[in-house]
Amino acid sequence: MTERTSMHGQWSSRLAFILAATGSAVGLGNIWKFPYITGEYGGGAFVLVYLACVVAIGLPVMIAEVLIGRRGRQSPINTMRCLAKEAGRSRVWSLLGWTGVLAGFLILSYYSVIAGWAMAYVFKAGSGVLQGLDGAAVGSVFSALVSDPVQLVFWHSLFMLMTGLVIARGVQSGLERAVRVLMPALFALLLVLLGYALTSGGVARGFDFLFSPDLSKLSTGAILTAMGHAFFTLSLGMGAIMMYGSYLPQDASIAKTSLVIAGLDTLVALLAGMVIFPIVFANGLEPGAGPGLIFQTLPIAFGQMPWGGFFGTLFFLLLVFAAWSSAISLIEPAVAWLVENHDMGRARATLLVALSTWFLGLASVLSFSDWAFDFSFLGAQKENGIFDILDLLTSNFMLPLGGLAMALFATWVMRRADVVEELAMGDGAGFRGWYYLARYVTPVGLVFIFLNGLGLL
Ligand code: PFF
Description:
- This protein is mainly alpha-helical.
- It has helices spanning 14-25, 28-40, 44-72, 76-86, 95-127, 135-146, 149-168, 172-198, 203-211, 220-233, 240-245, 254-282, 293-304, 308-342, 346-366, 385-413, 416-423, 429-453; strands at 375-377, 380-382.
- It has one domain: Hydantoin permease (Orthogonal Bundle), CATH 1.10.4160.
- 75% of the residues lie in helices and 1% in strands.
- The protein has a two-stranded antiparallel ribbon.
- It starts with 13 loop residues before the first helix and ends with a helix.
- 4-fluoro-L-phenylalanine (PFF) is lined by residues 24-25, 27-30, 104, 107, 232-233, 235, 238, 240, 326, 329-330.
């Protein structure tokens, strides 16, 4: 076939794609969400299921998503329509692009609020108010922040503005350069924190919590959440990675690249867990404290270590950056579609999407104060109303269903010869292994976890 090119540009190299996709994958999901849901769902067994889902479900879906994106070279909505037509199938497949755009919008609305917390902490750490505080005092600093909607709206707005500015100017140029420097810096800082955690006196209990699976603790809700998190953390199932795949040069190996991205992402999450849980246990804190977990633990470490004010500021700054490089990928599919189909400039398209996302984000802001309400979901107690609902709906349902559709599309709908050509790894054992996984194992595993999670099995 004739090779398509994307009207939005192309990465300068395979490395640039790895950097951008890692920038998308590594974010609040690794450092904020992974530790807190691991804490809520009881530790080791949850981590084990999450790792298994990354390998058996996440990785095959990632390969499928990148390959679909590169073959279509448009926004996910138009890519799906175009490839379905190419395979002689119904245009209904473009629905997948639509649900992806919706998921990105819903996720970013609350993601920006949490990134706002991290921004607030850049200044708290910098001003020294966290120095020398014990667990209880750190906890009240956090409660004071989240119960103040005015502050939260301020930080949420600032984060959306920062994200919007980059999107409006086009994704590739700045992002590549920034990720190349800031990602390794974040990684190095996690190692510094690990050094502190190892001496905190909670290592044995912390690592035991994280790495000794007690399978009897594993609820069906925990399995569903672990699978959902594999999608969330790898940015899969909504078209973000498909969009980035559409900028990938034709000669880059999709399988190897995906392996690198998933490996780096998992490493960062495990590191974050290895930092947080020793601190939790050394200070008698509650592992199941919920979304505030890292904000109630890390400041204790920064308050006690030498140069803590400096390291604390830098850490939260890098966390904001990691969140920002993920946020960009969350709205890029919507912006690209508006540009392609509505003849809109990037700036106007961005303004439209960012403003509506910002507005919905207000519901998450209030979920931690005036609008907070409790409910229980598959055995887990949730306290933060709309924020929790948006998170559960997107991570546990929309992303996995999107991923399922992508795996099915790449292996049942697209012509096998086209897929072989696009992956460009020959038709040997490697290709067949992936094809078999994505065609049978991933879909069956996914559907099984769904039905099981919903109590239908
Ligand atoms: N992967 C990001 C994180 O772990 O923070 C969040 C995310 C980005 C999810 C992009 C989904 C997505 F499409």
